[in-house]
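Holo prediction. Input below; ligand is S-adenosylmethionine.
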Amino acid sequence: MTDESAQDPGAPMHDDEFLTLREGEIAAALPAQFDASLYFIGRIRTPWQSREQCPKNPRESDAVCTVELDPRWAPALEGLETVTHVVLLYWMNRTRRDLVLQWPRHYGEQRGTFALRSPARPNPIAISVARLVRIEGSTLLVTGVDCLDNTPLLDIKPYFASTDSVPEAVVGWHARRGR
Ligand SMILES: C[S@@+](CC[C@H](N)C(=O)[O-])C[C@H]1O[C@@H](n2cnc3c(N)ncnc32)[C@H](O)[C@@H]1O
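Structure of the complex:
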């Protein structure tokens, strides 16, 4: 599975919905070459075709979505049927990768890319802890994702509440907004 815009940082930017630079946003020059390669192991099928439709975070929708795993990796699902929640890592293939300062519309303030959960980042990897509804062959039915239809899948891991959960964690700038 390939996605040309994801493979080549110099690929032409053609997706205005995600690629337009807003006032207050600053881009860096991307490195001349990549340091590693990766495999897309499947696709996430969701009901959302545009940014406006898409949830802003995995808890905003309880729509059942499907993770279509490349069948070659199906044996790697052995044991996953016992798991209630999975960590999904996926590749936000329609975003730009050069932003260092961003101006998210819903916050209306400038922030550094690494202080945000924006899809626009040097390696546009998104994460969500999704509820595993069931597994049918090489397809997983899940709730709790926030990506566009056909977003490439990078990895699936079991979520361990015992070690992955940090209930006292704080994002200061967000907490100060009183949300
Ligand atoms: C704010 S991000 C949060 C991502 C993820 N939950 C995380 O924190 O890693 C979610 C937004 O990314 C955008 N998005 C979803 N799928 C995308 C894709 N394939 N390429 C680029 N942007 C995408 C949509 O606007 C969606 O509302």
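Residues 18, 51, 54-58, 92-95, 117-119, 126-128, 146-148, 151 surround S-adenosylmethionine (CB under 6 Å). That is the main takeaway for now.
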